[in-house]
Amino acid sequence: MKVYAMNQLPFGSKHHALRKNTPAIALTVTLTLVLFTVFPLCYPLLGYPLYLLKSFSKSQISISSYVAVKYGSIYENESEQKCDIFTGEWIPNPHAPYYTNTTCWAIHEHQNCMKYGRPDTGFMKWRWRPDGCELPVFNPAQFLEIVRGKSMAFVGDSVGRNQMQSLICLLSRVEYPIDVSYTPDENFKRWRYPSYNFTIATFWTPHLVKAEEADAYGPTHTGLFNLYLDEFDEGWTTQIEEFDYVIINAGHWFYRPCVYYENRQVVGCRFCLLENVTDLPMYFGYRKAFRTAFRALNSLENYKGITFLRTFAPSHFENGEWNKGGDCVRRRPFRSNETSLEGVNFELYMTQLEEFKLAEKEGKRRGLRFRLLDTTQAMLLRPDGHPSIYGHWPHENVTLYNDCVHWCLPGPIDTWNDFLLEMLKMEGVRSYEEKLDLSDRKMKLR
């Protein structure tokens, strides 16, 4: 449509004024057209990351568009949309790493890739650059000042513990923590930084809900688990109220065979191979588990902390499944246009987003804050950062498969704590703005 054609519209007595303001109108129309052309490209689906578009089929667009319209953006306000730190590329960083396996004792043996002979070091020398802005490299002193007098819990599986160990190593440049665990059980550890009165803890709960191993062998030799999808796992839910920050995650354990229970009745299973038990998609149990975990947090009477959902980190098995010769031997990150989130990874990610938005809405009614620590795109692009065979000595008689699920330390998982620090700084800005807003309201009421 030509802009000057608008001058021919029958606007009655205002026609003369319209002719005088034609340049302004033309500019307005042009800007409007640009806005509606560019905006969807920047924020498709009202807030879901741009990279998801690469993997959408028509049905997926329909489903996720519905989710976006129903639950809204993953961002709370416009200022956060100006720079999505979770969408970007990996770029070379010759200054990394910022610790080594000899300077940090917290690295789990199976992620200590340099100790066990990994020959290349390039996987450590990358940093994440968001589209349109910068993500500062982790500053341990700044982090410890922000969390002074506070506590942080990592709730979930061993990948969550992987992040906690990364955090300990990054902070080791300033201070090492002391062990203040209540139990010798390695699945429930607590560490305290005396100079900052800061405590971190890990609660190992790979299914997030009440669970028990029904058969150690199971159909795939990885065990068969009973999951009580509507029941809290009291191993962590009874101890979490005191924490200021809770980082929750789950994912890879839901691939294992499971029998699903609700109201103590079997409602189906995931590849359990039991007679007269309906086989359900993995997403069924995954959704219900997150819903119950979020319900637990929202129901705690004294919990006032901030809940971070750390999103699913895809594995990178190639040339076979995890137990059929699959391995991860790439030596460089992908570019964002070289791969896409699809299939099971896509479904797990979207399931998390949907349940997160529901929990966030409920949490607001109680004055609780939920934040999305979205690591999915960044880790989708890092097939080079896994231990693979470098989690034990070659001559050791172990039954471990190639590890393309966890992350070498140091390595790409350190970036999760770059994200975390940036989000904590953002919380400080929010808190300051809220105080200013409250002060302004009080002044107006005087």
From TrEMBL:
Membrane topology: Single-pass membrane protein
The Trichome birefringence-like C-terminal domain, residue ranges: 135-423
Alphabetical UniProt keywords: Membrane, Signal-anchor, Transmembrane, Transmembrane helix
Pfam families: PC-Esterase, PMR5N
Domain of life: Eukaryota
Listed transmembrane segments: 24-46
Principal localisation: membrane
GO MF entry, a single one: O-acetyltransferase activity
GO cellular component: Golgi apparatus; membrane
Domain (Trichome birefringence-like N-terminal) ranges: 81-134
Subcellular location: Membrane
Presence of keyword Membrane: yes
PANTHER family per record: PROTEIN TRICHOME BIREFRINGENCE-LIKE 19, PROTEIN TRICHOME BIREFRINGENCE-LIKE 9-RELATED
Family of this protein: Belongs to the PC-esterase family. TBL subfamily.
Descriptive protein name: Trichome birefringence-like N-terminal domain-containing protein
